[in-house]
Amino acid sequence: MVERSELQKMARTIDAHRKQLEDLHARIEQVTAIIDEHQVTSGILHHLQESSKTGKTGARLSIGSGVTLNYIHESKEEGTALVDIGSGVFGEKPWSEAYTMTVERKEGITLLHKDLSKQATGLEEKITLLAQEFNAAAEQLQPSQPVTTPVFEPTTSPKLPTPPSSSEEKENRRPQRRGSRFGNELTLDD
């Protein structure tokens, strides 16, 4: 038989895992946005590289607040881009190098995304298993009570209970616990 305190501990564990899963999903969304950004950047760099072979290439560069600059490169040699090479240090690199660096970074971030997704899947499975264990334990805690009929002796009449006085009522009151709105069933909040 499972104690109520054990069920409460299980419920807290499940809630903690759910919070952890929410945080993990938020990180996965952030990593997905970074991957998308790298995909766009590598696509633009690839386009600039290929177009520069004709002797003239261009692009529109958004600088924020709805302002876009028109960039034109007129040379058969590829241009350069400023690339963050780490710790906030930028280096001027040819487009081909910038493209290679961007693709490599995207691959590394994609591995991180896969790892986070694997962790999320494992956590979801763990939460499902814990919830099933919780439900099984909750059923054990609430055994069905057999219905018994009171037995009265025919020679005496049953004594009706008298309502308790207000002082007796205060003494007999148990502190109210938080209950669910579905009767006395245990929930994950208990």
Provide a compact summary of the structure.
This protein is α+β, with helices and mostly antiparallel strands and 190 residues long. The chain has helices at residues 4-52, 95-141, 166-172; strands spanning 57-64, 67-73, 80-86, 89-94.
Strand content: 5-15%
Helix content: 40-55%
Tally of alpha and pi helices: 3
* CATH topology title: Helix Hairpins
CATH architecture: Orthogonal Bundle
- What is the strand arrangement across the widest sheet? 1-2
First CA to last CA: what distance? 17 Å
In total, the number of strands is 4
User: What's the number of structural domains?
Assistant: 1
Radius of gyration: 34 Å
Oligomer: single chain
The helix/strand series, from N terminus to C terminus, equals HEEEEHH
Major sheet, described briefly? 2 strands, antiparallel
Label the structural class: alpha+beta
Give the C-level CATH assignment.
Answer: Mainly Alpha
Unreliable runs, pLDDT <50, ≥5 residues? Answer: 144-186
The average pLDDT score comes to: 78
Give the secondary structure arrangement, pairings included.
Blueprint: H1 4-52, E1 57-64, E2 67-73, E3 80-86, E4 89-94, H2 95-141, H3 166-172
Antiparallel strand pairs: 1-2, 3-4
Describe the structure.
- With 190 residues, the chain is α+β, with helices and mostly antiparallel strands.
- The protein has one domain: Helix Hairpins.
- The chain has helices at residues 4-52, 95-141, 166-172, and strands at residues 57-64, 67-73, 80-86, 89-94.
- The chain has a two-stranded antiparallel sheet with strand order 1-2. Strands 3-4 form a two-stranded antiparallel ribbon.
- Helix 1 runs antiparallel to helix 2.
